[in-house]
Design brief:
GO terms for molecular function: catalase activity. By secondary structure, the chain is an alpha+beta fold. The protein is built from 19 helices and 20 strands. It is 27% helix and 16% strand. The strands form 4 sheets. Strands 3, 4, 5, 6, 7, 8, 9, 10, 11 and 12 form a 10-stranded antiparallel sheet that branches. Strands 17-14-13-18-19-20 form a 6-stranded parallel sheet. Helix 12 runs antiparallel to helix 13. Bound molecules: CIS-heme D hydroxychlorin gamma-spirolactone 17R, 18S.
Length: 691
């Protein structure tokens, strides 16, 4: 039998030493050592493979089954480990120890996600973002499964499958992926006026975040806190990012999708790996039943928010994410978040959206993770408080429960046998004893009938720039809707939100303004809530921001160094972009390594840029579309641009005109730092026609 043995270089010995010095050899799943991981067993060196080869079969069979169904919503996500620390006790309102033990640190696992796209879709579509936190508390897991938008599209869980069917790729054609700009989504929401408030948020810059680290989080639904005396207080949960809430520009988000589909995933992973741990403050809005009754809307209706100006957000804790998962599948993919995971002292409200969620999340894990024992997967296991009950068996049971005590009550202890755990009437989870009466009905409460006041409140609370972005996003999305009657219906609804908004969108679409639709309840004007804005609120800092420096051969190394020092001193990062990945030769000699090659590192992936070019280098770049796009896009996306004097011709060819964000580096290479702390909002009206 002729043939040679194919083996991997460096793997010639019988065993392999790992980095930690442990001797390791490959085995089958059942522990049998494998002698050859390169060649399958075959009849002769060129003959067919043999069924007998259990090593090959096991390996391929495992591979064939390595995927599990992706989440039906929120399929694409990224997560990190960290901790939660309470800074202010809520003892008066709750007996949940996680909210009463000031200074105690509780492990968390937090997953951020998009909603509509599949697991392999891009990170930057216009979409809501999931913000799910699993707290491993001493009294069992608490999953606060929220979003980056405090309200929702629908009031009743029974409409959720319709909403998701409508937004996901259309049933016959299988597209568009991860996009709401299509017929079926707008058909559905235009027929569901209750969605209008959420539409305002989804069309705002909140739906195109700059980073997972720069998003607010909200529990959305109203929950209850229960104290020792079982007295209830309504609560809304909030997360506030330390870096402020920041967004991309729409054109930028679209281009990032091509330049780096993993933009948010990479950003989170790299920040944590570099020790820039993202942090959020944790806050609560607390309301008694009396407070709730005094509000002009129903707090059980998830399409409404409670303006902070009416009920302030009390900051009581913080969350720091400081460890990346070691295995994406085992941790991020297998994490199962359930709104029903609540420690004693936290309880649900009668919000009909939340009520449906209480069923769905537990249920969906059965098809996703395949077993009722998904709570035994390490990422889902209660850590602060090991679970013990009398549930037994089931697929993938990993625990070996000893003894006969799998039922209760029992008196096995009287025979000196293990008798198993017992209920805890005082310390265990208790439900708020809400008085209920009334007939069984399928009715939407009258207090849910106002569909436009909060949409109006949100729109009118925005800055002018943010209003223009909402109007433009509506015009963009509706322009992708081929069914004209859907566009008309949406415009009719918008007239109930704000007359000028409807006019602007109609004008941008080139359509006449239709008559307003008839609202179930006439919208009310509410006091504007500046807290709902983003612009003007985030901290002016380079923390979390990256400056891309485009360099060529002959670039001024001292200028680059001075800029680098200034940026890093403020907590920012720089990345060197060069025409070739090998880097460039500097003016005074020496090489500068590149972090990215120009064509693969467009300016959309940076927060600000600098062009540090030599005269010859600049002249070469004048005919390079990548260099022109780098410059033009940085300008178009309202970014600061620092430049060496030799870079002027490139700026001119790219159509850049001078404003506060265009900064010469010749006198002071650090001069661009101030402008790089934010976007140049004032530039926008001069370069883009917004609706
Ligand atoms: Fe979810 N949602 N949802 N949702 N949701 C899921 O559960 C559902 C809603 C949210 O990172 C699913 O484990 C219903 C609101 C997040 O793993 C599923 C309704 C909010 C995540 C499900 C809602 C959310 C999910 C799919 C209407 C903000 C990702 C996979 C009644 C408060 C969690 C899974 C993660 C995931 C059902 C509405 C947030 C199908 C029925 C409102 C962040 O069970």
């Amino acid at each position: 039998m002729k043939g040679t043995k194919q083996s991997k270089p460096g793997n010639a010995g019988e065993t392999h030493q790992t980095a930690t010095g442990r001797e390791q050899r490959i085995t089958t799943n059942h522990g049998v050592p494998v002698s050859d991981n390169q060649n399958s067993l075959r009849a002769g060196s060129r003959g067919p493979s043999l069924l007998e080869d259990f090593v090959l079969r096991e390996k391929i069979q495992h591979f064939d089954h390595e995927r599990i169904p992706e989440r039906i919503v929120h399929a694409r996500g990224s997560a990190a480990h960290g901790f939660f620390e309470l800074t202010d006790s809520l003892e008066e309102f709750t007996r949940a120890r996680i909210l009463t033990e000031v200074g105690a640190k509780t492990e968390v696992f937090t997953r951020f996600s998009t909603v509509a796209g599949g697991a392999g879709s891009v990170d930057t579509p216009r979409d809501v973002r999931g913000f799910a936190v699993k707290f491993y508390t001493k009294e069992g897991n608490w999953d606060l499964v929220g979003n980056n938008i405090p309200v929702f599209f629908i009031q009743d869980a029974i409409k959720f499958p319709d909403l998701i069917h409508a937004v996901k790729m259309e049933a016959d054609r299988g597209y568009p992926q991860a996009a709401s700009a299509h017929d079926t989504f707008w058909d559905f929401v235009s027929l569901m006026p209750e969605a209008t408030h959420m539409i305002m948020w989804a069309m705002s810059d909140r739906a195109i975040p700059r980073s997972y680290r720069m998003m607010e989080g909200f529990g959305v639904n109203t929950f209850r806190l229960l104290n020792d005396r079982d007295e209830a207080t309504f609560v809304k949960f909030h997360w506030r990012p330390k870096l402020g809430t920041q967004s991309t520009c729409w054109d930028e988000a679209v281009k990032i999708a091509g330049a780096d589909p993993d933009y948010h995933r990479r950003d989170l992973y790299e920040a944590i790996a570099a020790g820039d741990f993202p942090e959020w403050e944790f806050g609560v809005q607390l309301l008694s039943q009396k407070d709730a009754d005094a509000l002009p809307f129903d707090i059980l209706d998830a399409t409404k928010l409670i303006p902070e100006e009416l009920v302030p957000v009390r900051m009581v804790g913080r969350m720091l994410l400081n460890r990346n998962p070691e295995n994406f599948f085992a941790e991020t993919e297998q994490a199962a978040f359930l709104p029903t995971n609540m420690p004693p002292g936290i309880d649900v409200s009668e919000d009909p959206l939340l009520q449906g969620r209480l069923f769905s999340y537990q249920d969906t894990q059965l098809s996703r993770l395949g077993t009722v024992n998904f709570h035994q997967i390490p990422i889902n296991r209660a850590k602060g408080c090991p679970f013990q009950n009398l549930q037994r068996d089931g697929q993938m049971q990993t625990q070996v429960f000893a003894g006969r005590a799998n039922y209760e009550p029992n008196s096995l202890n009287e025979a000196d046998e293990e008798s198993g755990p017992r209920e805890d009437p005082r310390g265990g989870f208790r439900t708020f004893a809400k008085d209920l009466d009334g007939a069984k009905v399928r009715l939407r409460a009258e207090s849910f009938a106002d569909h436009y006041s909060h949409a109006r409140l949100f729109f009118r609370s925005q800055t002018e720039i943010e209003q223009a972005h909402i109007a433009s996003a509506l015009a963009f999305e509706l322009s992708k809707v081929a069914l004209e009657h859907v566009r008309v219906r949406m415009l009719s609804n918008l007239r109930n939100v704000d007359e000028t908004l409807a006019k602007r969108v109609a004008h941008a679409l080139g359509m006449p303004l239709p008559t307003a639709s008839q609202p179930a309840l006439a919208p009310q004007d509410m006091e504007a809530s500046p807290a709902l804005r983003i612009i003007g609120k985030y901290p002016q800092t380079l923390e979390g921001r990256t400056i891309g420096i485009l360099v060529t051969d002959g670039a001024d190394g001292e200028m680059i160094n001075a800029l680098k020092t200034a940026v890093e001193a403020e907590g920012g990062k720089i990345k060197i972009v060069a025409p070739r990945i090998g880097g460039v030769s500097l003016k005074k000699g020496g090489k500068l390594k590149a972090d990215g090659q120009l064509a693969g590192s467009p300016s959309v992936i940076f927060d600000a840029v600098a062009l540090v070019l030599s005269e010859e280098g600049c002249s070469d770049l004048l005919d390079d579309a990548a260099a022109l796009d780098f410059t033009k896009d940085a300008f178009g996306h309202l970014k600061a641009i620092g430049f060496s004097p030799q870079a002027r011709p490139l700026l001119e060819k790219a159509g850049v005109f001078v404003d506060a964000g265009i900064v010469a580096l010749s006198d002071d290479p650090t001069a661009v730092v101030e402008a790089a702390r934010t976007r140049q909002w004032d530039r926008e009206a001069r370069i883009r026609s917004l609706a």
